[in-house]
């Protein structure tokens, strides 16, 4: 996926602030934090309306992005980062929570619909395309009749937290594979 001059723009989706830090909806931020540790960098404020870390991920040039806006307004900061780094949308990798996958399941795909995910909808609208790679981190369906909007804003359960660090690590490995090997090889490895 990466050529010597290209940059992988890796966006972790979430909501800013300590109130949301442990929410299911913030899994993108949690994986981005793991990737920043691997790069050896700290997130810094950027004029695009996001926090960024620049460096090399598994030897490839990468920029990690965490929008400072709320999830459903992620498109503006992501489009700003795409423009600033002159990264074509096809080099964009977006990490997000996915209700339609069991907890801890990782799936990679290019394009497609947003499945009601307001962060993805905002990004697609701001970029004018859905043709970017998504790293879907399964959070499972809400129990009983709980509203999905409430469920994604709840912290991971105690049982989930016991396995969360492992699955974040696996998800970060999948992002590294995307950057170094491309989508098809990463899908073969992680699906």
Q: Tell me the β content.
A: 15-25%
CATH architecture classification: 3-Layer(aba) Sandwich
How many domains? The number is 1
User: Any idea what the shape is?
Assistant: globular
Please count the beta strands (DSSP E, at least 2 residues each).
7
- H/I helix tally: 6
Largest sheet: 7 strands, mixed
Cα(first) to Cα(last) distance is 18 Å
Low-confidence stretches: none
Task: Kindly report the spatial arrangement of strands forming the biggest sheet.
Answer: 2-3-4-1-5-7-6
Q: Superfamily at the CATH H level?
A: Peptidyl-tRNA hydrolase
Question: Considering DSSP H and I runs of 4 or more, what fraction of the residues is helical?
Answer: 25-40%
Order of helices and strands: EHEEEHEEHEHHH
Rounded mean pLDDT score: 94
Radius of gyration: 15 Å
User: Could you name the CATH topology?
Assistant: Rossmann fold
Structural class: alpha/beta
**Which CATH class applies here?**
Alpha Beta
